[in-house]
Design goal:
Length: 143
């Protein structure tokens, strides 16, 4: 099976995660599209489209012949439910491929939910088909 190349959404989400985690500081220059593409296993065109999306949201500014700079880390847009689901699913798949079991993955998610001093009262971690996922989503929303 050939590994998939990250999509624009994948690259955009990865860059949002870097910004949100503080890995990129406001005012700092981001790596070039070519460098980011190499890091992410993508291509420069895909990275460029993700950077343009970040620019539309007011997070970065591109200066011709100088590069792209982070201008506002506080305005990181929230993920849509679909984007969040995809990010979680991708993280679980990567963990599975790395040899982590379900219990270890649950522990990692529970630890991540406690980041920043914020605790989440009700957590549901579900690995199932779409029918069960819809049913569990309703249970979690009503908890």
């Amino acid at each position: 099976m050939t590994p998939s190349v990250p999509t624009v959404d994948d690259v955009y989400t990865a860059l949002l995660e870097r910004i949100g985690s503080g890995a990129i500081e406001v005012g700092s220059k981001l790596p070039s599209c070519r460098t980011l593409a190499d890091e992410m296993g993508s291509n420069p065109s895909t990275v460029n489209r993700a950077l343009r999306r970040l620019a539309r949201h007011g997070l970065v500014r591109t200066e011709p012949r100088r590069g792209t700079f982070l201008v506002n880390a506080g305005a990181v847009p929230a993920l849509s439910p679909g984007e969040a689901e995809k990010a979680i699913r991708d993280a679980v798949l990567k963990a599975r491929r790395s040899g982590f079991g379900a219990a270890q993955i649950r522990e990692l998610f529970e630890a991540a939910l406690g980041l920043g001093g914020r605790q989440v009262g009700v957590v549901g971690f579900v690995e199932c088909n779409s029918f069960d996922l819809d049913r569990m989503s309703t249970v979690i929303e009503n908890a």
